[in-house]
Amino acid sequence: MKKVIYFLTLLLLTISCSDSSTDNSTNSDNKSFHPPTWIQSRWTTDLGGSKFGYNFKSNDVCTIINSTDNCFKAMLNIYKGTQAIISVNEEIISETEYKFSYTIQSFTQYYHFIKVSPTSIKESITDPNGNILYIKN
């Protein structure tokens, strides 16, 4: 139950900030995400009868709530041309991990995904109950 509450809180924070954009970022092109090839797909888990997860694209990351994708790139693009301080930081891009964060003003959201198998990944979270496992669709 704690995992469900944590995950829903995380998704609500992402959606509530979904009026954001990236002009300044700390990744290679200062504007986009670069998920590794192995993670580029839709990954979901069932929580409380609903599907939640992530859709990793070649230049974007989207959260999935049931059948709706909310993409970070579109969220960050809303801030283009404003005075908002935006950054994207991809800390780890490897064959088994993808760790990144984005910052809008002083709010930073962190994500860390670890490959478990070719058909499953886990989101490493700071929750006493452990990690969330997602299955490739």
From TrEMBL:
Keyword list, A-Z: Signal
Position of the signal peptide: 1-21
Organism domain of life: Bacteria
Protein name as annotated: Lipocalin-like domain-containing protein
